[in-house]
Automatic annotation (TrEMBL):
<protein>
    <submittedName>
        <fullName>Diguanylate cyclase (GGDEF) domain-containing protein</fullName>
    </submittedName>
</protein>
<feature type="domain" description="EAL">
    <location>
        <begin position="23"/>
        <end position="279"/>
    </location>
</feature>
């Protein structure tokens, strides 16, 4: 026992140490990043695929960190870090405000825009002031609730169901459209689907990527879209990369598609070309 004990504390895990140092740097640089506007929003178009030709119907705002020393950092890296270090709310509020500002800018420049969906972390949902935070974004930018959709990850609902459901109810009562994100990745059960408030079911990309052939996955896809329809919810599939996957999704009754088959997330200036195209068609 003694030997094991000694050996354990003597072990020095270099990889772990490096990851800790890296995360510590991200935390340390956070405020500067906010102050210097190093966080950038990319926008990925969403297309309504229920008609003969796909029609632009929305966008998802996805944050990137353009770090002066570390380069472009993906949210998969810094979001979990910020969630663990109490910074996620400040970052998300920044992102939502920035999205609101951009929607206003597009409305002013083009005379119209499509709804932009922003992501909400589980931690955001416990904030009793969240309703006022999003209201303020509308007021500041003279927007309506219909301009901003809210994506809430499915796993958020599982943690403290009652409080989350209450917050979601309040947000919906204000007119916000709620998209249940990452559906099918975690805790979802049929029971949850019937008791949770949401307007859009956003299928995790594994549905697009595993359902191309016949089999269980394709069958599940059909069942899920059928249930969504009965609940009056729209179905969005993300991570659709190929024409073949797109066809499968349309056939299964998916309403909206987001994925590389149409476009990756792009900077605001580039997204504007989707808007101008949509306007002239
Ligand atoms: P998510 O909300 O599920 O966003 C979809 C992710 O899939 C994005 O990754 C997007 O770039 C990627 N994606 C889109 N189309 C395709 C495709 O056809 N194929 C593949 N393989 N991937 C595709 P991204 O931008 O790296 O974001 C990762 C995650 O970080 C997001 O997953 C979301 O959970 C989180 N995130 C991003 N922005 C924010 C934010 O502002 N706030 C919060 N709280 N989380 C955010
Ligand atoms: Ca999302
Ligand atoms: Ca998702
Ligand atoms: Ca995700």
């Amino acid at each position: 026992v003694r030997n094991n004990y000694t050996r354990n504390i003597a072990v020095y895990d270099d990889t772990l140490h490096k990851a800790e140092l890296y995360n510590a740097k991200l935390v340390e640089d956070f405020q500067t990043a906010i102050d210097q506007k190093q966080f950038q929003l990319y926008y990925q178009p969403k297309f309504d695929v229920t008609g003969d030709t796909p029609r632009l119907c929305g966008a998802e705002a996805l944050v990137r960190w353009n770090h002066p020393e570390l380069g472009m950092i993906s949210p998969g890296v810094f979001i979990p870090c910020f969630e663990n270090n109490g910074l996620i709310q400040a970052m998300d509020h920044y992102v939502w405000h920035e999205a609101g500002r951009q929607i206003r800018a597009w409305k002013d420049a083009l005379g119209f825009t499509v709804p932009v969906s922003v992501n909400m972390s589980r931690i955001d949902m416990y904030d009793p002031n969240i309703v006022y935070t999003v209201l303020e974004i509308l007021e500041t930018n003279r927007l309506e609730a219909a301009d901003l959709h809210l994506e809430i990850t499915e796993s958020a609902y599982a943690e403290d169901e009652e409080q989350i459901i209450e917050t979601v109810r309040r947000l919906r009562a204000m007119g916000f459209l709620i998209e249940m994100d990452d559906f099918g990745t975690g805790y979802s059960s049929l029971n949850m689907l019937s008791s949770l408030p949401f307007d859009v079911l956003k299928l995790d990309m594994r549905f697009a990527q595993n359902s191309a052939s016949e089999g269980k996955d394709k069958y599940m896809l059909g069942v899920v879209t059928e249930i969504a329809r009965h609940l009056g919810a729209l179905v969005v599939t993300e991570g659709v990369e190929t024409q073949q996957q797109l066809e499968v999704m349309k056939e299964a009754g998916c309403d909206i598609v987001q994925g590389y088959v149409f476009s990756p997330p792009v900077p605001a200036e580039k997204f504007e070309t989707f808007l101008t195209d949509a306007k002239t068609h």
